[in-house]
From TrEMBL:
InterPro entries: E3_UB_ligase_RBR (IPR031127), IBR_dom (IPR002867), TRIAD_supradom (IPR044066), Znf_RING (IPR001841), Znf_RING/FYVE/PHD (IPR013083), Znf_RING_CS (IPR017907). Its EC number is 2.3.2.31. Keywords: Metal-binding, Repeat, Transferase, Ubl conjugation pathway, Zinc, Zinc-finger. This is RBR-type E3 ubiquitin transferase. It is an enzyme of class 2 (transferase). Its cofactor is Zn(2+). Residues 71-261, 75-121 form the RING-type domain.
Length: 261
């Protein structure tokens, strides 16, 4: 915990009705030790942005700058002289780097999908870990690294990502290999998907038919088979498929009117 200020506050007994005397025993006007409470204030709350806080800052600002007394080192990444208290060394080695270079190095490794990060010096046995670097890493970078390590511990057969591009959340299938229903819903976007094919739910085809159509002609072939099955018609002008849901058999195209049904 941070530094604290201890303030001794006199403890006063409650005044009884018709009595005004105090039951405090004092020595030279100072309360005895057993008759005081200890009240703790943190320096931040004690100087709560008030005039006293400004006066306190002004008082300490006049102290001599001692940054020149701090030992310095040369960062092996940016090759610049940095204060030693702005450094971090890798675990299991003696190489020192400035904090900003470590942050940039970790971010670049995660961009390359490298989650087991070693010392930048080639062949060095030093390593970096999220908890070890936590004090200097931005929160989003720390969480990203931790999530990547957690995902790496999940078997590939049990994990996949939501097939909807605007979601793509990681889904862990604990029932992989079991003969259960393949239709599920994404826990995040709540849309239906196929666990076996790992695609949005193909409501008009079973998994075998879907895979066969995709293999033969991709999504175009799948669309043609779906149009044939549902008796969709194609506009002879714009070539869009049209499904009749209600009304008469006449459908007006944006170019010209055709009787499609």
């Amino acid at each position: 915990m941070g530094n604290k200020l201890v303030v001794l506050v006199p403890k006063c007994n409650k005044l009884k009705k018709h009595k005004k005397q105090r039951n405090l025993s004092t020595t030279n006007g100072i309360p005895q030790q057993e008759e005081v409470d200890q009240v703790y204030f943190s320096p931040k709350s004690f100087f709560n942005g008030s005039i006293e806080a400004q006066q306190y800052d002004d008082a300490i600002s006049g102290q001599p700058d001692r940054t020149d007394d701090i030992p310095k080192f040369v960062c092996e990444i940016c090759v610049e002289s940095q204060p030693l208290n702005y450094s971090l060394n890798c675990k299991c080695c003696s190489h020192f780097y400035c904090c900003q270079c470590i942050v940039n190095y970790v971010a670049s490794k995660l961009d390359d999908n490298v989650i087991r990060i070693s010392c930048p010096v080639s062949g060095c046995a030093g390593i970096l870990e999220p908890e070890y670097c936590r004090m200097i890493l931005p929160l989003d970078l720390f969480n990203r690294w931790g999530n990547a390590l957690c995902e790496s511990g999940i078997a590939a057969s049990k994990k996949f990502y939501c097939p909807y591009k605007d979601c793509s959340i990681l889904i862990v299938n604990d029932r992989a290999g079991q003969d259960l229903l393949v239709k599920e819903w994404c826990p995040y976007c709540r849309r239906a998907l196929c666990l076996r094919c790992r695609v949005p739910w193909h409501s008009n085809f079973d998994c075998a038919t879907y895979r066969k159509l995709i293999k033969r002609g991709g999504h175009d072939r799948l669309l043609m088979e779906l149009a044939k099955k549902l008796k969709w018609r194609k506009c002879p002008k714009c070539k869009y498929y049209v499904e009749k849901s209600e009304g008469c058999f006449s459908m007006r195209c944006r170019y010209i009117s055709f009787s499609l049904f």
